Amino acid sequence: MYESYWGFQGRPFESRSDERTYFPSELHNAAHLKLNYAIETRKAVALLCGEPGTGKSMIVGSVLQQLPDFVTPTVRVVYPAMPPDQLLRYIARQMAPHDSSDVFGGVGQSIETLERMLRHNVGENQHAMIVIDEAHLLESNGSLEPLRLLLNLATELTESESAITLVLTGSTNLLAHIARHASLEDRVAVRCILERFSHEETTEYIHHRLRAVGSKNASEFTVEAIERIQEATLGIPRRINRLCDLGLMVGFAQELSNVDAKTIENANAELSIRSRVA
Fold first, then answer.
1. pTM for the full model?
2. 174 and 73, same structural domain?
3. Does residue 107 belong to any structural domain of this protein?
4. Which runs of consecutive H residues, i.e. helices, occur in the chain?
5. What is the CATH number of the domain that holds 57?
């Protein structure tokens, strides 16, 4: 709606980034490299932790798009808050959809299905991958122990480190949950922790996104406006996106030459009202 007014070739603060708008912060790049390393070297477990909105889903999505050909099948569990038997059944059905066994059975049946699939996979020199989002929810449902048993099986079936790489993403509470399962923690190859952006990183992030859609000098937000953005969002990328997007919309509606601190303050107040109502 406001793109032509600002001279953009798209909306710079869309929640889903692409190759143009992806901001290669030091922490995000490091997390990306660590996850790729864990997968390509067939490690058992990788952790990706951070507050909501810091970019975990974006990184995982990027990693999934760039997987080597030998990594198959892949399963992503977006909401794991289910009993252990249901979680393993879901993973088994996703990883072996053509298996004719009774996948509506219990844990034992799911493990047998997964074992058959993994044996075939290993024979083909392929490597499976399971991504579990919101993995900090696993502990309350007792699902970390069944995953540990699955990793035991994956380790026994291959001469490499594991026939599966399990990528667990979630809040930083996940680190403490894993620490309570010593044999599972021993298999963690990489730990990636995403932090909030500093003021400098927020400034670079906003300028990068603006230039990605054709801004000539990335001056649509004043220096004072970016200071308010940092204060209001605490350097969390998802919040930065929402506030900047609304700031540009207000600037368009009011025919401003740029987005100043007052505009950001008003936009942030509007978002706060929306959040309370929701």
1. 0.89
2. yes
3. yes
4. 3-6, 26-40, 56-65, 84-95, 107-123, 144-156, 173-179, 182-185, 199-212, 223-233, 237-253, 261-277
5. 3.40.50.300
The two three-digit tokens of residue 143, written as one number: 């699902």
* Tokens 């996948």, located at residue: 103
- Each residue of 34-68: b (16+ CB within 10 Å) or e? bbbebbeebbbbbbbbbbebbbbbbbbebbbeeee
The count of structural domains within the chain is 2
Q: Are 28 and 59 in contact (CB under 8 A)?
A: yes
CA distances from 197 to 50, 234, 255, 264 (A): 12, 8, 30, 18
Q: Are residues 133 and 84 in the same domain?
A: yes
Range(s) of the domain holding residue 246: 197-273
What is the per-residue pLDDT across 93-108, written as a single tens digit (0 to 9) for each? 999 887 766 555 677 7
Q: Is residue 63 part of a domain?
A: yes
Which parts of the chain sit beneath pLDDT 70? 100-105, 273-278
Task: Give the Cα separation of 212 and 103 in Å (integer).
Answer: 47
Rounded Cα distance between 221 and 205, Å, is: 12
What is the rounded distance in angstroms from the CA atom of residue 88 to the CA atom of residue 107? 7
What is the model's pLDDT at position 166? Answer: 97
184 with 139: CB under 8 angstroms? Answer: no
Which of 152, 173, 194 terminates a domain? The answer is 194
What pLDDT does residue 215 have?
95
Q: How far apart are CA 85 and CA 81, in angstroms?
A: 12
Q: Is residue 188 part of a domain?
A: yes
